[in-house]
Amino acid sequence: MAILATEGLAKDYHLGPHTVHALRGVTVSIDPGEFVAVMGPSGSGKSTFMNLLGCLDRPTAGRYWLDGQDVARLSRDELAAVRNSKIGFVFQQFNLLARTSALENVELPLLYGSSTPRERRERARARLQEVGLGEREHHHPSQLSGGQQQRVAIARALVNDPAVILADEPTGNLDTRTSAEIMVLLQRLNREGLTIVLVTHEPDIAPFASRRLLFRDGRLMTDQRGEAQDAAAVLATLPEEELVG
Amino acid sequence: MIFQALRIALRSLRVNKLRTALTMLGIMIGVGAVIAMVSIGSGAQARVAEQIQSLGSNLIIVLSGSSNAAGVRLGQGSQLTITEDDAAAIAREVPVVQVAAPTSRGTAQVVYGNLNWSTQIQGVTADFFEARDWGVDNGRPILSEDVDGATKVALVGQTTAQNLFGETDPIDQIIRIKKVPFTVVGVLGRKGQSSWGQDQDDIILIPLSTAKKKVLGVSQANARSVNAISVKVRSAEDMAEAETQVRALLRQRHRLQPSQDDDFWLRNLSEVLQTQEESTKVMTYLLGAIASVSLLVGGIGIMNIMLVSVTERTREIGLRMAIGAKGRDVLLQFLVEAVTLSLVGGGIGIALGFGLAEGMQRFMSWPAKVPPGAVAMAFGFAAGTGVFFGFYPARKAARLDPIEALRFE
Asked: Which listed residue, A48, A206, A233, B93, has the most CB atoms within 10 A of its CB?
């Protein structure tokens, strides 16, 4: 059974007298364990699609099942609860809280659920170790590199054991090598069974996904599956990290 | 949840120390000013209340009036028109009167050893102490046996004791009043200044009978006449009635025609003081009201900072919402932040207010007194200010659209 399924998903925006059809009926089904790249030029509707998938917005028409639950008509608060338990977000800007330790940043989603402080601490610590930052749990974001910050953000997305990770241009702010490292991490998590939907407009990032959705003018143009490129192999071909002054 | 919100709020306040401190300053000054002002006001009230207490509560003083001999009217007390019998009649016939104590007074030079001191001598009866709410610190009061037997015993006031005896224990010492030897049997409790500034502790009390026979002399006209009668009324509500009845009784006893003026004076001093108390109360309210304005300004400061904070942290709010914060979680976070600001500020403000009140008392000898209710009130005010002025910014934060908020630069 699909973990994400949409049927005729549409979203209109009203800008004064004009109606903008940002998304014009998208039907797609994503199975557990898939690694999907969502692509398209700006204005293609991919961001709107991602906002709807992330339960940050409600569709004008159509249906959306997330992990078996029909979420298209839920209220704001109900959507917040769904985001908290089912979705992990990774952003281009990392969106970590400044002057807050890595561990506390990872704990953050758990604060809005029901768990004891001890549970929170243990789970956050485990996730940080999983992304390879176990020794930096007390570092603040400003003391971490971009790649490390994104790892903290990924740990934060994982901490609630979500049904799906939605990553919006996760490598947009990172250099090539660090991007490859992040993709290695995401591929590893995917192999361990995690469903990932990733938005990107970088042609060298999309091939790391096993399925690519191309959007244009608010419609899903192509939906192709293929062998994913192995990020670890790509990383090996890249020159060793240069110290840029 | 509240605990969680508190932790989040405290963390964000700690991150912006200077801004937090400046915002708190507004509330601190507001609360401090309210406490200090109310303390000053209630200190003044307490001083008046003290004066009422020192005077003796529910006290009416009957003074000898002016004589009117063939159209020549002399001043107050120029003739001793009231008598010990009047006092007895008042006590007996006016039911609301608890006790009526006749007194005679004069001034005399008092000698002890090689020291001498001019002080007020009052001849009193045993009822005097009850009438004036005046206790004896050390020794015994004047008893009815002393009055009956015209014994030569004396009680000294604190100031007189200080001046005549210094460090010596006055009890059982012999003093000479107008060359008559008296044994000191007691020291009076401290009364302090009267409302007109007279030192009430500069006094010597002796039995009324002895005073007349040996010290002050007796009036030619009537051997039983006295200068004044202290009338203690049973309760404050009966004061007006007591005044009317005492006046009627005395007019009747003095056989005054309706056309004639009173030949005595009634002084209801607590009435005067109550008016004073009333006006200091108004002053307290006024000061409190003025100080509240600064609290209001402090509150607006909080609102201002919270609005800035909401704008500045739009992305953070967006993130929190994306990872599952509901509108009310965000509302609570900002509300708790505002209330924490105002409560901590208010707490420091209370300390500040106490300090100011203490300073007023110590350096300006103003009897500032922090009323216990004022602290609770100021704290409540501070919390209320936080909730009131924090609500709008918090609601603004809670209503943000997560998508917009995440995109905010």
From this structure: A48
